[in-house]
Each structure stands twice: as structure tokens, then as C-alpha cells.
Specification:
Elements: H1 3-6, E1 28-29, E2 38-46, E3 55-67, E4 71-72, E5 77-83, E6 86-90, E7 93-97, E8 102-105, E9 111-115, E10 122-129, E11 136-137
Antiparallel strand pairs: 1-2, 2-3, 3-9, 3-10, 4-11, 5-8, 5-10, 6-7, 6-9
Length: 147
């Protein structure tokens, strides 16, 4: 697939090459220049390269001892675990996640994904709205799911 096709609104195919790598997709830092996270990479399949979808599809991997930013935002998202095991903190609740588990995070729920002590990376697909607000640091004082 040429770079030109990768950046246009055309049909695309990403072959899984094993070890949770796909052709034409390069891992990138989760959030460049931000120290609110550790040991997380992301791969963007759909949504940032010219497609007209109303959603974005990304794959995140959290290495042992790694974690995403504890954040909240107006947009919702869905996570489906493909690799390893990890912990999802959603408000005041914690969910142990493993292969095939699906988690819906509703608008404004503070959340974080962690791989506290599993040697295998914790990898998951994440679907979000194409038009969405920017995440902000979570305010755990207001937790609608715990009230």
C-alpha cells in the first residue's frame, strides 16, 4: 500500500504480521511530550489518515509497569482486549481485563489503563468518535458512577 493510498479515503487492508504488528502501521508514543503516562504505544488504523468515518480505530499497548493518563472527556469509547491482561480504572471501580473483554467508558468517567505486573504487554483496540473533545486530567472528586 503506497503512502498516497494510506492518506486518502480509499479502502485499506492491514495485514497482521504477528506479535501485534501490522503492515503499514508504525507504533508511536501514546502522547508525545507528556509525562502523565508510562510505557504506552499506539497504532492508528482508521481516522487520522484521510478517511471520512465517524469513528477512529486505534490499538494501544501498555508494557509491564506502564499506564495511560488518568483522564476524562465528553466523548465515549469502547475498548476490546486483544493481548495480555491489564487493569482498567473507571471512576472508583477497577476491572481486570483479559482477551476478548469489552469495556465501554461513558462520557466524563475518569479512566486509566494499567499493566501493573504482567510480563506480556496489555494490548487493546479502542474505538472513539471522530469528532471529540480533548482529554483532560481526571477530577476524581467528581465521579458520576460512584455516586
Amino acid at each position: 500500500m503506497s503512502t498516497e493510498l494510506r492518506t486518502r479515503n480509499v479502502s485499506k487492508f492491514f495485514r497482521h504480521n504477528g506479535e501485534f504488528d501490522w503492515n503499514h502501521i508504525s507504533p508511536a508514543d501514546y502522547k508525545p511530550g507528556d509525562d502523565s503516562w508510562k510505557g504506552v504505544s499506539r497504532r492508528v488504523f482508521i481516522g487520522e489518515t484521510g478517511e471520512s468515518t465517524r469513528f477512529h480505530l486505534r490499538y494501544f499497548e501498555v508494557e509491564k509497569g506502564g499506564y495511560t493518563t488518568l483522564e476524562q472527556h465528553q466523548h465515549e469509547h469502547v475498548v476490546t482486549v486483544l493481548r495480555g491482561r491489564g487493569l482498567a480504572v473507571v471512576g472508583c471501580k477497577e476491572f481486570e481485563l483479559g482477551f476478548g473483554d469489552v469495556l465501554y467508558v461513558s462520557p466524563n468517567d475518569p479512566h486509566q489503563f494499567r499493566n501493573d505486573n504482567h510480563d506480556e504487554p496489555f494490548g487493546f483496540l479502542c474505538v472513539v468518535n471522530a469528532e471529540r473533545d480533548r482529554p483532560r486530567q481526571a477530577d476524581m472528586a467528581f465521579c458520576p458512577i460512584c455516586e
